Structures are given as structure tokens and as C-alpha cells.
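Consider the following assembly input.
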Amino acid sequence: MNIREENIEIILFDYAEGNLDAQEQEKVEQFLASHPQYKEMLAMYQENETIAKPTDIVFEGKDEMFEQITGNKAKKTFLIPAFVKWASAIAAVVLLFFCIRDLIPSEEKQLGNTIAQNSKIETKKEFTETKIQETEIKKEKIKTKTYFSETKNGKTETNEEFCPTEKTEEQVLIAEDNSQNVIIESKEEHLQLAEEIITNDNSTTQERILYMRYEESIVIKEERKPTLALRVARRLKLDEKIEEFYNSELVSNTREFINIAKSLGNKKVKTTTTEIRQEGKINV
Amino acid sequence: MSEKQFQQLIKLHSDDLLRYLTKCLGDNDTAKDILQDTFLAFWNHKQDIEIHKSKSWLFTTAHNNMLKAIRHKKVRDNATIQIDTTSKQNLENEQLVDFLLKQLNDKMRQCLILKDWEGFNIKEIAEIMQMSEENVKVCIFRARVKLKELKSKLEI
């Protein structure tokens, strides 16, 4: 950069505006040190402020000029200040919040009513289902009793004859009540329970009732376990059940009949033996 | 460019242009005429003008129109006014600026207004004024030094 009188004003302008690099600035400062008149000129340039922008000059005929140039009428547009826009937005949000807040309780109330109604419906449904289940259980009892209503000729009596007696019904209910913590689902469990009752001298009332609930089940018939059932009945001293076994065809040999008869007393044994010989049902 | 954009352009730049023309010409009516001619030219050439260069185009055209007006002596060149140091007490700020600007020659005044009021850089001013950048720098430098001298004489 060559500094001469011809270009000194340009260089001083760039120096004052900060357009020069460090090396160029140093050169200018060296030049100014040897040329004080330019140093004074630079000071005058730097001291002078930018001229203030006048505010009194405003063009009033904007719309008219637009209409004259384009031939169309100027559309009036209103400039909305930014703070007005923000204030409107905030006000809208606040208003919306209060509207929602007022709506929430009524919505909750409505929802609560709906839940309550549904809850009632559900409760009613559950109650109905429970009743149906109870009915099914009773029907099952009736059906089970029919097993033991079968005669030795293989004929089946009607259900009406074998409807549970008042006593049996009560027992079933007691059993259900007492055995709510004891669930016997499989025939294996049933047989295991029977074995336990036989081997345990201190069988509880609950166990007896449980046995009564299940002794007539299909397990005994299908598994052909009349001896086991008989032993349990004897153990529990359930005379009525022993009598049923005696009259049933589940017992198919003399020894069993004699054992049953023994359980029922000596008189019965004599009668039984005579009847058996007379009927020739079994070989004695 | 749509009419809506053109209307916005008028609202954005017409005040700045009128201020520039008025201060450079010293005649408000002629300045308004030139302003209208400038926007009319813009509308007629809107297909050729890039929208981001609108302001620069308007000032260039206005400046050229102003030069034509000066050449046809439509306006009285009152750039040279004798300094009346006794009246300085009565000058308000804007009047003082107006008074000081009138002490500069046309190019210095135009360059200074474009830089200080309209915020154009040296390159843009050179395009508007159709001058070299070096000449613009010299004009602005001399204008500021002269204003400082005047202020010193007026003891401002």
C-alpha cells in the first residue's frame, strides 16, 4: 500500500472505518507521525458524528400514488403491533384454560355417573352369574345323585325322585362354606383325600362333608373304586352310604357284600347271605 | 411482483426516498414529483427487478431522476449559503442538520445521506451514484471533515 497525497483521503477513510489489517494500520500511523496535517484531518473525521435522521419528512400520499400507478384502489391494511399479537395470544390461552377448568368438574361428574351406572350393571351381572353358577352346582348335585339311583337292572330313575333332600342341601351349603379354602379339582385329589380320611383317625367334620360332596362323583364309578368308597364310608360311619353301596351293583363280589353287611350289623349279614344264595346273584 | 407487494414497498421506502430527495434538492414539491416518477418506473419494470434489490433500485432511479431535474434547472441550486453565525442560536437540531447539509456540495451531501440515513454501504452508494467506490469514500471523508469545520466555526 503506497500512501500518497492523492489517495490519503481514501486510506484515512479505510483506517477510520477499520477496513485495514494490522500491517496497513501500522504504515498509516507511521505516515501520520510524519504528516501532522493529515493526523488533524483524521481527528476531525473521527470526532464528527453521523448526521441525525430527520423525522419531519413523511410522504402522505402513499395510497393515492399507488392508485394512480396501478389504477386499482389501495387496500387498507392495519399493522398490528407485535405486543398486541402476543397479548391476544396469551389472553386466548388464559381464556381457554378457564373454560376447560370450568368444564372439568361437570365432565368428571358425568364420568362418575357413568362409572357408577356401569358398576351397578357389572355388580348385577356378577350377581346373576353367581346365581347361575349356584344353580349349575345344584343341577350337578342332582345329576350326580342319579348315578346312585341306577338300579341293578340298569334302569335310571327320574331326577325328581332323586332331588336332594333338605338335609343334603344343607350339608352341601355347609360344605361349600367350610371348604372355601379347600379346592378339589381332580379325581386324583379326591382319591388322595379319601385315602387320608381312611388312614387318619382324627378326621374332621370338614373332611367328612367334603367326602359327602364328592363320594357320589363319577370318580368312584369310573375308577371302580367301590371298596375305597366303602372303606371311607365305614370309616366315617356313614350308614346311609354303606346301605347304598350294599344295594348297588358296584359291589360285585361276596367278600365286599359281607364286609358291607358287617358294617351294617350282624342281622343284615344273615339276611344278606340268605338273599344272595336265594337269588343266585353271586357265588357264595 | 403483486400489487400487494408493491403497496408494501411504497409504505416501506417512500418516506426514505422523499427525505433523501428533499434534502438533496431543497424542494419538497419537486422531490414528490421525482418520487412518483421513480415508483412508476419501478412498476413498469417490476418484471426485471429482483425484490431484494428493490430499495437500491429505487434510490438509484430517484438519484438519476434528481440529476435530470437539476440539469433542466427545474430546481434552484441553493447549495451555497453564506454562513450566518448570528442565527445559530435559533437553530433547532433538525434545522441545524438541514443547514449544515446545505453547506456541502451535491455529491458529498448525497453520499453522506445515503450512508448515514439509509444505511447503504460504499459499494451500494457507488452503484446508486454511478461513481467509483474510491470517489464515494473521498466524498464521505470530505463531507465529514467539512461538517466538523462548520461546527467548529459555529462553535457547536
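The CA atoms of residues 220 and 226 of chain A lie 6 Å apart. Ask yourself how this observation constrains the way the partners meet.
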